[in-house]
């Protein structure tokens, strides 16, 4: 493994380019950079099930192997029943199937209507809860006019490059911008679709409950506001966010989300339905009433978090600008020990992390996104064993 060295002149340039926006995300140099429908942050253990034990204060990470190399601007990752992985390319607007045993890559096809620019493009992907029967792939992408969620049939009987059916738009109208397009989507344990959005650089949208920007949305698989949402007839599940790119649930079906700060604090939040997470009035912890404080916070050069996953009693958080994987051990919705950093500088920018079993994670690097320092073989999918 090679540590990445950034020349002083380049480091200074990157610092100037990212000042005022810690997203560390996507754009080319020169851009600014089943859970119950009730209180998922405080849900009690299921009947007959013991509460999750407190994880040890100190953990460990071992890189088991490199699963795949040579990926261009990878963003979303979705494991397929049977073991293969689907990965989206932000800039090429393609979805590729990876055989984790051999690293062989097969392009399913290109998603039409994607308009890659800045931090936008083809972002998160997720499989339908009924994928085994309906073969539906959901995708979040930036179009010429907005950010939206579509679904497509995956037809494996067709030739490579032609396996994606025509996209059916499930949800549209999410504000787009050069920056802060959000993009993470995930089906929760309740089989509802959760969508992390950004405020597209317009900070006023985050506190506006009528806007879809700077929110976590909760939808039915058909794109309607999910039953039990906190605001009547609204898809909004939580608000006051700046740019949400990580969603994960713990064993007790509590939802956590990562969020980019601006100049001061990045956040990991425990999400409550109807909760206000403070942006733009609050960045990080705040004494102001009515805002929910983060579980943990980081200086923006240490994190700029994108994807998160839950494994072994901890949330694992991928850092872009921070170029490290954070472990946040949990007791309920509180941190039970100080966060630990792993892989610092070893693989560059880290975009997406997905649980791959009780003690395994898939980790996706992000060095070909226009802000990274690519090396031979970038970008990669890694398999990790964690504790």
TrEMBL record:
InterPro entries noted in UniProt: 6-blade_b-propeller_TolB-like, Glc/Sorbosone_DH, Quinoprot_gluc/sorb_DH_b-prop
Please provide the record's keywords in A-Z order. Signal
Q: Which SUPFAM superfamilies match?
A: Soluble quinoprotein glucose dehydrogenase
Q: Which residues form the Glucose/Sorbosone dehydrogenase domain?
A: 71-371
* Signal sequence, renumbered to the chain: 1-24
Positions of the UniProt region annotated as Disordered: 21-60
Protein name, entry field: PQQ-dependent sugar dehydrogenase
Taxonomy, top ranks, is:
Bacteria, Bacillati, Actinomycetota, Actinomycetes, Kitasatosporales
């Amino acid at each position: 493994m090679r540590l990445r060295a950034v020349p002083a002149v380049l480091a200074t340039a990157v610092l100037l380019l990212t000042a005022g926006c810690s997203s560390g995300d996507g754009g080319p140099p020169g851009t600014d950079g089943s859970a119950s429908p009730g209180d998922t942050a405080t849900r009690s253990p299921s009947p007959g099930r013991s509460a999750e034990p407190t994880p040890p204060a100190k953990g460990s990470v071992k890189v088991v192997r490199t699963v795949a190399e040579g990926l261009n601007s990878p963003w979303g990752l979705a494991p397929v029943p049977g073991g293969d992985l689907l990965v989206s390319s932000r800039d090429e607007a393609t979805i590729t199937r990876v055989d984790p045993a051999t690293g062989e890559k097969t392009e399913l096809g290109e998603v039409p209507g994607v308009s890659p620019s800045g931090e936008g493009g083809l972002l998160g992907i997720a499989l339908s809860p009924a994928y085994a029967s309906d073969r539906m792939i959901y995708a979040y992408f930036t179009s010429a006019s907005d950010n939206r969620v579509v679904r497509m049939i995956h037809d494996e009987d067709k030739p490579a490059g032609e396996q994606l059916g025509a996209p059916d738009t499930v949800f549209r109208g999410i504000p787009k911008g050069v920056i802060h397009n959000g993009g993470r989507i995930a089906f929760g344990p309740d089989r509802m679709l959760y969508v992390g959005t950004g405020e597209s650089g317009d900070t006023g949208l985050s506190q506006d409950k009528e806007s879809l920007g700077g929110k976590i949305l909760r939808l039915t698989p058909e794109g309607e506001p999910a039953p039990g949402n906190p605001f009547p007839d609204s898809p909004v599940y939580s608000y006051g966010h700046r740019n949400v790119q990580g969603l994960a649930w713990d064993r007790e079906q509590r939802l956590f989300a990562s969020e980019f700060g601006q100049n001061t604090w990045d956040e990991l939040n425990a999400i409550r339905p109807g909760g206000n997470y403070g942006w733009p009035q609050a960045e990080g912890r705040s004494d102001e009433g009515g805002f929910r404080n983060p579980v943990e916070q980081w200086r923006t050069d240490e994190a700029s978090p994108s994807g998160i996953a839950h494994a072994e009693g901890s949330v694992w958080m991928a850092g872009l600008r921070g170029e490290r994987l954070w472990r946040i051990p949990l007791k309920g919705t509180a941190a039970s020990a100080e966060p630990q950093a792993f892989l610092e500088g070893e693989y560059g920018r880290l975009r997406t992390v997905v649980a791959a079993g009780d003690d395994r994670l898939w980790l996706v690097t992000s060095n070909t996104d226009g802000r990274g320092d690519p090396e031979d073989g970038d970008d990669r999918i890694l398999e990790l064993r964690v504790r």
